[in-house]
Amino acid sequence: MKKILIALVALAFIALLISASSFGIIKGVVLDEKGNPVIGATVRVEGTSRGTYIKNKDGSFIIQNVPVGTYKLIITAVGYEKYSTTIRITAEETSEITVKLISGKVETKSVDVLGKKLIVNNTEIGTKRKISDEGITQVAREGVISVNGIDVGNQFTGGYGCKSSYAPAPYQQGYFNTEAYDRIYDNEFKEAISDPLSTFSIDVDKASYSNVRRIINSGSLPPEDAVRTEELINYFTYDYPEPQNDVPFAIYSEIADCPWNTSHKLIHIGLQGKKVPLENIPPGNLVFLIDVSGSMNVYNKLPLVKSALRLLIEQLRPQDKVAIVVYAGAAGLVLNSTPGSKKNEIIDAIEKLEAGGSTAGAEGIKLAYEVAKKNLIKGGNNRVILATDGDFNVGVSSDGELTRMIEDRRDDGIYLTVLGFGMGNYKDSKMEKLADKGNGNYAYIDNILEAKKVFVNELGGTLFTIAKDVKIQIEFNPALVKEYRLIGYENRLLNKEDFNNDKKDAGELGSGHTVTALYEIVPASSDKENGSNKVDPLKYQSSNVNNTSYNTDEIATVKFRYKDPDGTQSKLIVNTLKNADNKLSQSSENFRFSSAVVEYSMLLRKSKFAGTSTYDGVIKLAKGARGQDREGYRAEFIRLVEATKVLSVASK
């Protein structure tokens, strides 16, 4: 018996040696035409489950355990032409390759430089004239474009490193823009004595900022209604204290002078969500719901969806599982729920997707929720991840019908993440409503770096909810506050009665998320009228201020309600905010940078409340509050304001 066991072990060892010798390795580097690494490019060995994506700074990659044989090596990247070559794999040997990708074709016919100098690498390319397709391609490939000395990015071709990836809408021949945004009316000032309560739902969505960035980097100013101030503010993280004990978030508050109206004050309120390590997040039951309709057949739509989801797949753990549902003219399941240990199988299913047909989005949503419910993990992270341009045109398509359909499913404990892609037919209003009603979050992905922000840097916040139905209610002390105005959150306002109503839906807070809100305050000592709509004196009652209100330094009481992710009863937190006479220069970087973002938003929206705001003032304030800026997002914001300043001059 012992001899038999020894023989079996020997045979197994020999089989292992034979197996090990039947594989080879592929190593390589992926560069662009100028020799720069193409980060985010996808490398796939056709006919196998082997592949990777470029994440090394030098553009290098390695694919191990490739079976011996002859294959096509396929390399794709957003904004570049597809590359394929035949490669032979030899046992126990490494095949090496260096690839240079060619930039994809631009779609624009001509560009009017609006009478400004078009300069590439300090060389004047044109003034007051049209530039041909070929000329634009050459300009874009040669370097960064600047207008009158201000860098406004590579505006005319896509690709990694470009700040934009399509021609600006006003310059396209035969181009029809059907992008949809809901009308936003700025919040007005309210009198603290007659209307002391301000109630709203938190909002962690950040889509508006990256969408505005996409439009500006394309050479156009955004529509006013594309600018949601709270989403611009919350795109950035702030240095708030970490929560203690079992409370899911910590609260931060500050008061100082208002930058755009020195006779007013600003109140800054911040929430810091508890950061849950990825290894401690419950198992994930994810369903990718991917729009593969004809409108997604553009390089910055479905190809970018594939690259973005690949970043997420790389973060999966063995205990996580993924299913894939697609929709075009109809909906279908292309991958059953598959464990995260089988990354290559999941990636292969995504890489095979192609776009074409009409858009039956509602059917896709129904099927995705059915698949998520079928594979529900009790106490797990159950979520549908929708990737689309939002242009539904078959079956149920109205905002009302779609949101009601999603509302009916959120009680199943399934959350929704909405990812927006593309331009021209982009339906922002629909996407935001779906995420709001689906207990979820909403991001717009305009390039691979934004995908990295969503699925790598902020993965916990994107996919794991630590508190739901989070509401804020502030009561202002009329002895110290004459008028107040909530800045942003116009479509998140709640009635005062909604605060204590646990059946009223509100926003979700993800792991590590920060939420920031600002109020512009008119002090009670002010003798100016500042925009609140005056009403006639009441006939049957009067508004009296308690004597104790004059004997306290409390300017406001701030209340928060939230539920645990699987809870049905809300919990209450109460804080008070003390009055202060801090100058703007004495305030924190949190305060000054968020104020700069607010000013920028008001300028873009042409808000009547912008006061003395200017782009130069925004740039100066933001530069002084840039802080450590580890990921460079604040530096990018400053460049964006500089580009906006140029465009605002050119558009006059």
Broad CATH class of the largest domain: Mainly Beta
Count the beta strands. Answer: 29
CATH superfamily of the largest domain: Gamma-adaptin ear (GAE) domain
Mean pLDDT figure:
82
Give the CA-based shape.
globular
* CATH architecture designation of the largest domain: Sandwich
How much helix is in the residues? 10-25%
Count of alpha/pi helices? 15
Largest sheet: 6 strands, mixed
Sum up the structure in keywords.
652 residues, alpha+beta, Immunoglobulin-like, 4 domains, six-stranded mixed beta sheet, five-stranded antiparallel beta sheet, 29% strand
Compact summary:
The protein is of the alpha+beta class.
Care to describe what's here?
By secondary structure, the protein is α+β, with helices and mostly antiparallel strands. The protein has four domains: 21-100, Immunoglobulin-like (Sandwich); 111-171, no CATH class; 190-276 and 467-621, Gamma-adaptin ear (GAE) domain (Immunoglobulin-like, Sandwich); 284-446, Rossmann fold (3-Layer(aba) Sandwich). Helices cover 25% and strands 29% of the residues. It contains 15 helices and 29 strands. The protein has a six-stranded mixed sheet with strand order 20-19-18-21-22-23, sandwiched between helices. It has a five-stranded antiparallel sheet with strand order 14-25-27-17-16. Helix 5 packs parallel to helix 10 (448-457). The longest helix is centred in the first third of the chain and has 19 residues, at 2-20. The protein starts with a helix and ends with a helix. Residues 2-21 and 105-175 have low confidence and may be disordered.
